[in-house]
Every structure is written in C-alpha cells, then in structure tokens.
Amino acid sequence: MVKINILSNKIERGGSIIEPSNEKDLSKIDRNKVIEIFEDKGVILFRNFNLDKDTITEFTDLFTQQYANDANRRKARFKNSKMHDVDPGKMEMPLHSEASYSPSWPEIVWFYCNQAPKKSGQTTICDGRLIYKNLCAKTKNFFLSNQIVYNLKIPYERNENQNKENKQSKLKPWYIENPGVSDCFIDFKNKVINLKQKRYAVIETRKLNEVAFVNHLQIILDRDPQILGWSLEDGSKIPDEIMSEIREVSNKLIVDIDWENNDLCMIDNKRIMHGRRKILDDEKRDIINLQSLKASFGYGSTMRKQINSS
After folding, report:
1. Do 280 and 120 contact (CB within 8 A), yes or no?
2. What distance in Å separates the CA atoms of residue 47 and residue 4, rounded to the nearest whole number?
3. What is the Cα 158 distance to its own chain's centre?
4. Block means of pLDDT (10 residues each) for the chain, length 310 residues?
5. How far, CA to CA in Å, does 114 sit from each of 19, 56, 83, 182, 286?
C-alpha cells in the first residue's frame, strides 16, 4: 500500500506524490497503478522509498522500452549508460520539454536526487495542458496552424564504417527516418549531423481530444548548443506579443520541486515542461537524469481504457 497526495493545484488533476505506507521497496509497487496515475496526472514524485544509484534503473526499466541517447555534454554516472548528469552550471534553466526539437523526443524524463540543495536549485515544472488552456484564442490558433522549424547541429559517436568514409567530402546527405526532418547532412570530420526539424508547439496529450503546449521555445540558445536557432516555416520569427504571453502564462503556473535526498520524479515529457531555479554559489546539488525514449506501455492506453469501460 502507498499514500498518494496532490503535488500541486497548478497541475491539471493535481500531479501526484507517492510515499510508502509501510513497504519501502519501490520495485514492489503496482506497476499498472503507477501507469494509470502517470497518464492521468502527468508527473509523479516518489518520496521516502529505499532508492539508491544501484536500484533506480531496476524501477525505470519497468516502464521503458528504449532509453534515449542523452546529449554528449552530459557525463554518464555510476558507470551506467542510462544515467547522466543534468546540464552543468548554476544558472537558471527556462522551461522546456527535453529534446522536443529533436528526432529523438523522449516520452518520459526521470530525475533522481542524489544530493538535495537546501535553499535553491529547485527543479521547476509546468503543465503544458494548463498553459494551452490559458492562452488567448488568437495564440492558440497561431500554434495550431504554424509549425516551428528548429535548425540543429547534433553530435554523434562515429563507428568504424563511418571512419572509412571519403574524407575529401566534408558534408554528405544523410537520412533520419522521422516526420519533419529536412536538409539533413552528416559532417564526418566534425562528427555532427546538421538538420532541420519541423514540430508543432502543441501536441495531443495522452487524454483524447486534449492538447498541451510543450516545446523548446523558451530556452536560451547558449543553454542548449544543439539548437542553432528556430523560426516559422516562412523564416519569420514568432511575434513578440505571443512570446510575451507565453512567458506570462507559464510563470503563473510554475511549480517548484523542493528536493529531498533519494526523491525520484517521473515526468510526462510530452505534457509537462521542466526547468531549474538558479543554484546559489555555496550550494551543492546532484540530480541524475534518465530518459525513456519509448515507454513500455501504449501512449494514452489507460486513459482510453477508462473511456471504453465507462
């Protein structure tokens, strides 16, 4: 048995904090119940369970079909390729959906608190469903009808066959099987793939006929070196008044996660955006990041089951 409480009223349907009522072994929790809560609430904070660096992936494996390859700038942790540092530095990180600009857009993002800061460095989350609901009709229509084009430069690890490629040609046309990818070229010399990725800034959530505002539009470019820039399809920028509205609405809906040691947070990366408060110079903070590229359960499966049974 577990105790389930609301995380915040600023999240549609409240989000969840799950704590043990007696059994502290997280691996013994009802997997199907977790999936049902996750799909409904969008974010779960697991607190006061017996978790450590050696047992985290035993739990995340239960919900993951395939892990994402995290950005090269983030170091692997505990000799585990599934676990990485978050972005370095102490600066604030604006709200974003992890790799929402990329052909590899994770379904679930996990954060494990190895060392909690005492008074700064909170992880921020914001429900893209509520952001969308609070935008004016004109802005909603703008994002429903306009795609964003992200201009990307993504590092990659070169294999033996690629080492043998013709080094006289710097750029070679490349192919990534993902809708919206164009102008894709591989640079063998610098070990990067250049491409453009088209994406809507709003997408359908796990609940039928609901959309959420989830994207990378608020990030500061130098905080994510893979993004060279973005524009609308015609090359123009998003109007300033629309960007101002997005920031104003988002800021009113931000929820701070005040970390405790051994917390584990499970975030629906295609509904809930996240960021980070500035970390004070004298604070130590150690948060571990895992990314489930593909979940091991169907997108919206429990939400649709509820409709079919009603």
Report:
1. yes
2. 10
3. 26
4. 95 97 91 96 97 91 92 79 90 95 96 96 98 98 97 79 56 92 93 95 94 94 87 96 98 98 98 97 95 96 71
5. 18, 11, 12, 40, 5
